[in-house]
Amino acid sequence: MKYQLVIQIRGDSLSDYDEMVELEDELITELGDSAEVDGHDVGSGETNIFILTNDPLTSLRHSLPLLERRRALVNVRAAYRLVEGERYTVVWPEGSTEDFRIV
Predict the structure, then answer these.
(1) pLDDT reported for residue 13
(2) Does residue 72 have a pLDDT over 80?
(3) Which of 23, 58, 69, 72 is the most exposed place for a label (fewest CB within 10 A)?
(4) Beta strands at 76-82 and 35-43: parallel, antiparallel or unpaired
(5) What pLDDT is attached to residue 47?
(6) 28 assigned to some structural domain
(7) What is the model's pLDDT at position 35?
(8) DSSP string, 17-59
(9) What kind and span of H or E run contains 14?
């Protein structure tokens, strides 16, 4: 896979962690063979789910309805980079000009 898509969700409490694990499992099902959910990290007030994909925009489009159903979309930021790269391109929320960092 060529890109790493990061779905970043605000929050790091235990209930948020449990919800993140459920969300990660649902993303695995939703994305199927088109992408690989490659783990997560939790800390500093955010949860990051890492997805390896050859098409980050399509992977995000497939993920958004799930995030919306879970009422998590308002707390989500998403960005991607080349697997070997360092610079992220923010793709959610659309039109965002904020820097994307993983803390």
Answers:
(1) 56
(2) no
(3) 69
(4) unpaired
(5) 87
(6) yes
(7) 97
(8) HHHHHHHHHHHHHHHGGGEEEEEEEEETTEEEEEEEES-HHHH
(9) helix 14-31
Distance CA 17, CA 61 (A): 23
Instruction: Give the count of domains, the chain.
Output: 1
What CATH number is given to the structural domain containing 74? 3.30.70.600
User: Is 2 strand, coil or helix?
Assistant: coil
User: What is the DSSP code (8-state) at residue 84?
Assistant: T
* 99 occurs within a structural domain: no
Q: Positive or negative, the Cα torsion across 1, 91, 49, 22?
A: negative
Q: pLDDT, tens digit, for every residue of 6-65?
A: 999 887 655 667 777 888 999 999 999 999 999 998 888 888 999 999 999 999 999 999
CB atoms under 10 Å from CB of 84, counted, come to 7
